[in-house]
Amino acid sequence: MMNAFERRLETISGEGLHSQEIRTIQVNLGLQCNQQCRHCHLEASPNRPEIMEWQTMELVLAAARTVEPDLVDLTGGAPELNPDFCRFVEALRAAGHRVQVRTNLTVLHEPGMETLPEWLHEHEVQLVASLPCYLEENVRAQRGAHVYEKSIEAIRRLNALGYGTARELPLNLVYNPGGPFLPPEQSELEADYRRELGSRFGITFSRLLTITNMPIGRFQAELRRQGGAREYLKLLQESFNPGTLEGLMCRHQISVGWDGMLYDCDFNLALELSIDHGAPDHIRRFEPSRLRTRRIVTGEHCFGCTAGCGSSCAGVLA
User: Fold this and answer.
1) Where are the alpha helices (DSSP H) in 147-238?
2) Which of 130-144, 243-257, 267-281 has the lowest mean pLDDT?
3) Which CATH number is 22-213+248-296's, of 3.30.360.10, 3.40.50.300, 3.20.20.70, 3.40.50.10420?
4) How many CA atoms lie within 13 A of 164 on its CB side?
5) How far is CA 65 from CA 27, 53, 58, 79, 279, in A?
6) pTM above 0.85, yes or no
7) Packing angle, helices 229-238 and 217-226, rounded to 10
8) For the chain, N or C: smaller number of CB within 10 Å?
């Protein structure tokens, strides 16, 4: 049976959603994290044991050699906590791949991470850093006490190394709404971030990416506790923008779970909705010819990526 999202697609194209190519391989290195954020769709925490092993990383390296993606995007949890993180990044860079790490910033204060910023700089690793607001009280509400101060300190240290100023060292910040509403206009919010962070802390960054909170994981649980789950889904459905469909991240990337399972996106990973419709669903069976134009697995949560100006791991779509 078609879900509500596919029924909406049928009125536009008469068919389901298909990928177009694999420009990005996104790799989830595990669900362990030093934080436990209220909006986390993966429900990552310090107590999660799931972690990618080196044997699976070797299969990812082989897949990357096959498709030659524009970018290998490392995420988690906190990907830096994987014991093979540095070994994996070094192997990717040695193979000539551009590597991007999604960091929560505070992990750089963890024991054993003292020299990680310099190491990232040495290997020209691109960074996407979570900072869900430029105001301390909003960050505290989403991510806990002292996270804001640690995040600011980490950004300033990265700035000192050239991140956010040098072209080869991009530092993009990520905003997530603090409640059941869509992000504001990205360029206007970016101007606010630059003004506030620059004047108060002397901070610079490359771009701001706004990402809509998906109605899954801890955010969904919070919506249900507050009795607002139905209203939020209605907001996403009523804000559907067909102009976002071309740029949806699932059409240009593939996500590899910590256990090697393949997904159309990180949100499907959170819901354990692996690649389907006859395409290979594990990195052991990676076949580019069958994955490049695969039929994408969708659900009602997909309205989160197509609402308003759209949302992806790279910010707005339209």
Assistant:
1) 147-160, 186-201, 217-226, 229-238
2) 130-144
3) 3.20.20.70
4) 21
5) 15, 19, 11, 21, 19
6) yes
7) 120
8) N
